[in-house]
Amino acid sequence: MRVVIVGSGNVATVLGKVIHNAGHEIVQVLSRNENHAKVLAQLFNCASGSFRSSAYKQADIYILAITDTALYHLEEYVQLKNKLVVHTAGSVSIEVLKNISSGYGIIYPLQSLIKNSEEDYEIPLLVDGSTPEVLTTLEDFSKTLSNNVTKADDQERLKFHVAAVLVNNFTNHLFAVADEFCQKENIDFKKLFPLIDETIRRIKLHSPETVQTGPAIREDIYTLGKHLQILSAHPDLKYLYLKLSESILKLHQKK
I need a surface site. Which of 20, 127, 201, 205 has the fewest CB within 10 A? Predict the structure, then answer.
């Protein structure tokens, strides 16, 4: 398929590479920042420009990989009547595109995407369409990009987005604060890598709740007290430690 990509950030870059590698032709990259669009377009040897002022080239599908805020204002600049237009956001309704085109949908990558990463990893795609015909087209297109394609409506996609924030964004934040703690206490964060790997391995095989370990679920007051004593020098982390310990205990006591 001939593809126009609107956007030049992480999602636009990674999704663009996947589309290109799948054998589709990217004919144009447009962005709010024309220089950023030009850099990305060079990867695909295609035209570039501003999504506000440039003429859109003819394509089979127009992919809007831009911020949620920008999506809500895009109809002020873009009209692609009778073209197939999709956005890639997890928490924005499909209906945000209804005034841009009569045929619209969503291809949401359920993955954390970083444009400078060269790693090859699976990207599940959640898709939806304004009509059954649009949905079929998007499913067929998406299956050329990923072996993990699922139909998801606005509410289902939003729920997946919340869950994704919990397992990815929040987890990464915990890694970040643990790394900061290790640096301040002069211990090596990398020594925790095998533990992190084993944690991920277990939750792929079992329910996360059933493999929960640690002093909170054991109600080990002695160990909790020693930890909190060390964390007295790190009040923000101490607060986080307490809240997470309470959450672990509360979930365990429900069962």
Answer: 205
